[in-house]
Amino acid sequence: MKAVLLGTTAGGGFPQWNCACALCVRARSGSLPARSQDCLAISGNGTDWWLVNASPDVRTQIASCALLNPGPGPRETPLRGALFTDAELDHTLGLLTLRGGTGLTVWAPGAVLHALRDQFDLRTVIDGYAPLAWREVSESFDLGGLQVTAIPISGKRPKYARSSTVDGPWVVAYRFQDPVSGGVLVYAPCLASWPEGFDDVVAEADCLLLDGTFYAASEMGSATGSSSGQAAMGHLPITSSLPELRRFPAVRRIYTHLNNTNAVLDPESPEAAKLREAGVEVPLDGTVIEL
Description:
By secondary structure, the chain is an alpha/beta fold. 23% of the residues lie in helices and 23% in strands. It has ten helices and 14 strands. The protein has helices spanning 22-29, 58-63, 89-92, 110-119, 122-127, 198-203, 219-224, 230-233, 238-245, 270-277; strands at 2-7, 39-43, 49-52, 79-83, 105-108, 133-136, 140-143, 146-154, 171-177, 184-188, 207-211, 252-256, 280-281, 288-290. The strands form two sheets. A seven-stranded mixed β-sheet has the order 6-5-4-3-2-1-14. The longest helix is centred in the middle third of the chain and has 10 residues, at 110-119. The radius of gyration is 18 Å and the shape is globular. It starts with a strand and ends with a strand.
Protein backbone atom coordinates (compact mmCIF):
# COMPACT_ATOMS: atom_id res chain seq x y z
CA MET A 1 0.00 0.00 0.00
CA LYS A 2 1.23 3.45 -0.91
CA ALA A 3 -0.31 6.78 0.11
CA VAL A 4 0.60 10.36 -0.80
CA LEU A 5 -0.33 13.37 1.31
CA LEU A 6 -1.40 15.62 -1.54
CA GLY A 7 -2.67 18.33 0.82
CA THR A 8 -2.31 18.80 4.58
CA THR A 9 -4.31 21.89 5.58
CA ALA A 10 -7.89 22.76 6.42
CA GLY A 11 -10.22 24.77 4.18
CA GLY A 12 -8.54 27.81 2.68
CA GLY A 13 -5.04 26.32 2.62
CA PHE A 14 -1.87 27.97 3.87
CA PRO A 15 -1.54 30.87 3.48
CA GLN A 16 -5.27 31.49 3.41
CA TRP A 17 -6.24 34.02 0.75
CA ASN A 18 -7.99 36.46 3.12
CA CYS A 19 -5.82 36.06 6.21
CA ALA A 20 -2.95 38.23 7.40
CA CYS A 21 -2.25 36.39 10.65
CA ALA A 22 1.43 36.09 11.57
CA LEU A 23 1.76 32.59 10.13
CA CYS A 24 0.13 33.46 6.80
CA VAL A 25 2.36 36.52 6.45
CA ARG A 26 5.42 34.31 6.94
CA ALA A 27 4.14 31.79 4.39
CA ARG A 28 3.69 34.56 1.81
CA SER A 29 7.25 35.75 2.46
CA GLY A 30 8.57 32.25 1.88
CA SER A 31 9.88 31.72 5.42
CA LEU A 32 7.32 28.95 5.97
CA PRO A 33 6.32 26.43 3.27
CA ALA A 34 2.90 26.88 1.69
CA ARG A 35 0.48 23.97 1.90
CA SER A 36 -2.65 22.97 -0.03
CA GLN A 37 -6.00 21.71 1.23
CA ASP A 38 -6.68 18.28 2.68
CA CYS A 39 -6.42 15.42 0.16
CA LEU A 40 -4.89 11.94 0.22
CA ALA A 41 -4.10 9.62 -2.69
CA ILE A 42 -3.92 5.90 -1.96
CA SER A 43 -3.20 2.71 -3.92
CA GLY A 44 -2.93 -0.96 -3.10
CA ASN A 45 -1.05 -1.92 -6.26
CA GLY A 46 0.77 1.24 -7.38
CA THR A 47 -1.34 1.37 -10.55
CA ASP A 48 -4.91 2.17 -9.49
CA TRP A 49 -5.21 5.28 -7.33
CA TRP A 50 -8.02 6.73 -5.25
CA LEU A 51 -8.42 10.18 -3.75
CA VAL A 52 -9.64 10.44 -0.18
CA ASN A 53 -11.46 13.78 -0.31
CA ALA A 54 -11.19 15.97 -3.41
CA SER A 55 -9.98 19.41 -2.47
CA PRO A 56 -10.42 22.60 -4.51
CA ASP A 57 -6.63 22.37 -5.07
CA VAL A 58 -6.86 18.94 -6.69
CA ARG A 59 -5.64 19.96 -10.17
CA THR A 60 -2.37 21.32 -8.82
CA GLN A 61 -2.05 18.42 -6.40
CA ILE A 62 -2.44 15.81 -9.15
CA ALA A 63 -0.07 17.70 -11.45
CA SER A 64 2.61 17.81 -8.75
CA CYS A 65 2.47 14.05 -8.07
CA ALA A 66 4.26 11.95 -10.71
CA LEU A 67 2.48 8.82 -9.48
CA LEU A 68 -0.78 10.32 -10.80
CA ASN A 69 0.52 11.35 -14.21
CA PRO A 70 -1.84 10.47 -17.08
CA GLY A 71 -0.90 8.02 -19.85
CA PRO A 72 0.15 6.05 -21.73
CA GLY A 73 -2.99 6.77 -23.78
CA PRO A 74 -3.93 10.43 -24.40
CA ARG A 75 -6.87 10.23 -21.96
CA GLU A 76 -5.77 7.42 -19.67
CA THR A 77 -5.31 8.14 -15.97
CA PRO A 78 -4.43 6.00 -12.96
CA LEU A 79 -7.17 7.77 -10.96
CA ARG A 80 -10.14 5.49 -10.33
CA GLY A 81 -12.29 7.75 -8.16
CA ALA A 82 -12.63 9.21 -4.69
CA LEU A 83 -13.83 8.51 -1.19
CA PHE A 84 -15.37 11.28 0.92
CA THR A 85 -15.02 11.46 4.68
CA ASP A 86 -17.84 14.04 4.82
CA ALA A 87 -19.81 16.53 2.72
CA GLU A 88 -17.78 19.67 3.46
CA LEU A 89 -17.17 21.93 0.46
CA ASP A 90 -13.39 21.86 0.86
CA HIS A 91 -13.49 18.04 0.66
CA THR A 92 -15.82 17.67 -2.32
CA LEU A 93 -15.48 20.64 -4.70
CA GLY A 94 -12.46 19.10 -6.38
CA LEU A 95 -14.86 16.85 -8.28
CA LEU A 96 -15.70 19.86 -10.44
CA THR A 97 -12.12 19.86 -11.67
CA LEU A 98 -12.38 16.14 -12.43
CA ARG A 99 -15.54 16.63 -14.52
CA GLY A 100 -15.40 14.74 -17.78
CA GLY A 101 -13.30 11.93 -16.34
CA THR A 102 -14.68 8.57 -17.41
CA GLY A 103 -15.16 5.48 -15.30
CA LEU A 104 -14.73 7.24 -11.95
CA THR A 105 -16.48 6.01 -8.79
CA VAL A 106 -17.27 8.07 -5.71
CA TRP A 107 -17.73 6.37 -2.34
CA ALA A 108 -19.34 8.25 0.58
CA PRO A 109 -21.70 7.80 3.54
CA GLY A 110 -25.37 7.83 2.63
CA ALA A 111 -25.96 11.19 4.30
CA VAL A 112 -23.14 12.71 2.23
CA LEU A 113 -24.54 11.34 -1.02
CA HIS A 114 -27.92 12.80 -0.06
CA ALA A 115 -26.43 16.23 0.70
CA LEU A 116 -24.58 16.31 -2.62
CA ARG A 117 -27.86 15.76 -4.44
CA ASP A 118 -30.59 17.45 -2.40
CA GLN A 119 -28.75 20.19 -0.46
CA PHE A 120 -25.93 21.13 -2.85
CA ASP A 121 -26.55 19.36 -6.12
CA LEU A 122 -22.98 18.64 -7.12
CA ARG A 123 -23.99 15.23 -8.42
CA THR A 124 -26.25 16.53 -11.17
CA VAL A 125 -23.66 19.08 -12.27
CA ILE A 126 -20.89 16.47 -12.49
CA ASP A 127 -23.04 13.85 -14.17
CA GLY A 128 -23.93 16.39 -16.85
CA TYR A 129 -20.35 16.10 -18.11
CA ALA A 130 -19.64 12.38 -17.59
CA PRO A 131 -21.74 10.22 -15.29
CA LEU A 132 -19.93 8.92 -12.23
CA ALA A 133 -20.77 5.81 -10.25
CA TRP A 134 -21.96 6.91 -6.81
CA ARG A 135 -21.61 4.25 -4.09
CA GLU A 136 -22.71 4.33 -0.48
CA VAL A 137 -19.99 3.05 1.83
CA SER A 138 -20.84 -0.03 3.81
CA GLU A 139 -19.01 -0.94 6.99
CA SER A 140 -16.35 -2.80 4.97
CA PHE A 141 -15.69 -3.06 1.24
CA ASP A 142 -12.95 -3.86 -1.27
CA LEU A 143 -11.24 -1.05 -3.15
CA GLY A 144 -8.84 -2.20 -5.83
CA GLY A 145 -7.31 -4.82 -3.59
CA LEU A 146 -7.40 -2.73 -0.40
CA GLN A 147 -9.78 -3.72 2.36
CA VAL A 148 -11.58 -0.56 3.49
CA THR A 149 -13.60 -0.02 6.65
CA ALA A 150 -15.67 3.12 7.20
CA ILE A 151 -15.64 4.22 10.85
CA PRO A 152 -18.45 6.56 11.95
CA ILE A 153 -16.99 9.62 13.66
CA SER A 154 -19.72 12.23 14.13
CA GLY A 155 -23.01 13.69 12.95
CA LYS A 156 -21.56 17.11 12.03
CA ARG A 157 -23.35 18.49 8.98
CA PRO A 158 -21.82 21.08 6.66
CA LYS A 159 -23.32 24.55 6.98
CA TYR A 160 -25.29 24.24 3.75
CA ALA A 161 -27.03 21.10 5.10
CA ARG A 162 -27.78 22.26 8.62
CA SER A 163 -31.52 21.85 8.04
CA SER A 164 -31.19 18.28 6.72
CA THR A 165 -33.09 15.64 8.67
CA VAL A 166 -31.18 12.73 7.14
CA ASP A 167 -29.63 10.45 9.72
CA GLY A 168 -25.85 10.10 9.85
CA PRO A 169 -23.15 9.29 10.14
CA TRP A 170 -22.16 12.49 8.37
CA VAL A 171 -18.44 12.10 9.07
CA VAL A 172 -16.39 8.92 8.81
CA ALA A 173 -12.76 7.89 9.06
CA TYR A 174 -11.36 5.21 6.77
CA ARG A 175 -9.23 2.22 7.70
CA PHE A 176 -7.23 0.82 4.78
CA GLN A 177 -5.59 -2.59 5.02
CA ASP A 178 -3.26 -4.16 2.47
CA PRO A 179 -4.06 -7.90 2.56
CA VAL A 180 -0.64 -8.71 1.08
CA SER A 181 1.64 -6.74 3.41
CA GLY A 182 -0.83 -6.59 6.29
CA GLY A 183 -0.21 -2.86 6.63
CA VAL A 184 -2.99 -0.70 8.08
CA LEU A 185 -3.45 3.05 7.53
CA VAL A 186 -6.22 5.04 9.25
CA TYR A 187 -7.27 8.42 7.85
CA ALA A 188 -9.33 10.62 10.17
CA PRO A 189 -8.98 14.29 9.13
CA CYS A 190 -12.14 15.39 10.96
CA LEU A 191 -12.56 14.36 14.59
CA ALA A 192 -14.99 16.23 16.82
CA SER A 193 -14.11 14.10 19.86
CA TRP A 194 -12.26 10.89 20.69
CA PRO A 195 -15.02 8.38 19.83
CA GLU A 196 -15.84 5.30 21.83
CA GLY A 197 -13.91 2.37 20.40
CA PHE A 198 -11.34 4.57 18.63
CA ASP A 199 -8.58 3.21 20.88
CA ASP A 200 -8.93 -0.17 19.19
CA VAL A 201 -8.79 1.43 15.73
CA VAL A 202 -5.57 3.27 16.58
CA ALA A 203 -3.93 0.32 18.32
CA GLU A 204 -4.36 -1.88 15.22
CA ALA A 205 -2.91 0.73 12.82
CA ASP A 206 0.62 1.00 11.50
CA CYS A 207 0.03 4.64 10.54
CA LEU A 208 -2.62 7.11 11.76
CA LEU A 209 -3.38 10.36 9.92
CA LEU A 210 -5.34 12.45 12.41
CA ASP A 211 -7.22 15.75 12.55
CA GLY A 212 -4.79 18.44 13.65
CA THR A 213 -6.91 21.42 12.60
CA PHE A 214 -6.30 23.48 15.72
CA TYR A 215 -3.53 23.25 18.28
CA ALA A 216 -5.74 24.87 20.91
CA ALA A 217 -9.47 25.58 20.98
CA SER A 218 -8.97 29.33 21.39
CA GLU A 219 -6.33 29.88 18.70
CA MET A 220 -8.53 31.18 15.88
CA GLY A 221 -9.88 33.98 18.04
CA SER A 222 -6.42 34.81 19.33
CA ALA A 223 -4.82 34.86 15.87
CA THR A 224 -7.53 36.60 13.87
CA GLY A 225 -9.96 38.21 16.29
CA SER A 226 -12.66 35.84 15.02
CA SER A 227 -15.47 34.75 17.31
CA SER A 228 -15.50 31.30 15.67
CA GLY A 229 -14.15 28.57 17.89
CA GLN A 230 -13.09 24.96 17.73
CA ALA A 231 -16.28 23.72 19.40
CA ALA A 232 -18.47 25.26 16.70
CA MET A 233 -16.30 23.85 13.93
CA GLY A 234 -16.25 20.28 15.18
CA HIS A 235 -12.51 19.63 15.47
CA LEU A 236 -10.78 18.16 18.52
CA PRO A 237 -7.73 20.36 19.26
CA ILE A 238 -4.26 18.87 19.48
CA THR A 239 -4.10 19.79 23.16
CA SER A 240 -6.87 17.23 23.70
CA SER A 241 -5.81 14.55 21.20
CA LEU A 242 -2.05 14.52 21.88
CA PRO A 243 -2.43 12.91 25.33
CA GLU A 244 -4.44 10.17 23.62
CA LEU A 245 -1.76 9.66 20.95
CA ARG A 246 0.97 9.36 23.57
CA ARG A 247 -0.61 6.06 24.58
CA PHE A 248 0.27 4.50 21.19
CA PRO A 249 4.04 4.94 20.72
CA ALA A 250 4.29 1.94 18.36
CA VAL A 251 1.99 3.61 15.79
CA ARG A 252 3.30 6.15 13.28
CA ARG A 253 1.20 9.20 14.20
CA ILE A 254 0.73 12.13 11.82
CA TYR A 255 -1.31 15.31 12.15
CA THR A 256 -2.97 16.63 8.99
CA HIS A 257 -5.80 19.07 8.08
CA LEU A 258 -3.97 21.94 9.82
CA ASN A 259 -5.68 25.31 10.05
CA ASN A 260 -3.67 28.34 8.93
CA THR A 261 -3.64 29.57 12.56
CA ASN A 262 -2.04 26.38 13.94
CA ALA A 263 1.35 27.09 15.53
CA VAL A 264 2.74 23.68 14.54
CA LEU A 265 2.97 24.97 10.96
CA ASP A 266 6.16 26.61 12.25
CA PRO A 267 8.63 23.78 12.97
CA GLU A 268 10.57 26.07 15.34
CA SER A 269 7.56 26.77 17.57
CA PRO A 270 7.26 25.37 21.11
CA GLU A 271 4.08 23.61 19.99
CA ALA A 272 5.90 21.78 17.19
CA ALA A 273 8.65 20.84 19.64
CA LYS A 274 6.07 19.20 21.89
CA LEU A 275 4.91 17.04 18.99
CA ARG A 276 8.47 15.99 18.15
CA GLU A 277 9.04 15.09 21.78
CA ALA A 278 5.96 12.86 21.61
CA GLY A 279 7.14 11.27 18.34
CA VAL A 280 4.24 12.76 16.36
CA GLU A 281 4.84 14.11 12.83
CA VAL A 282 3.59 17.12 10.84
CA PRO A 283 4.81 16.27 7.31
CA LEU A 284 4.62 18.51 4.26
CA ASP A 285 2.49 18.11 1.16
CA GLY A 286 3.87 15.41 -1.12
CA THR A 287 4.97 13.05 1.67
CA VAL A 288 4.78 9.41 0.58
CA ILE A 289 3.85 6.61 3.02
CA GLU A 290 4.45 2.95 2.22
CA LEU A 291 3.08 0.10 4.33
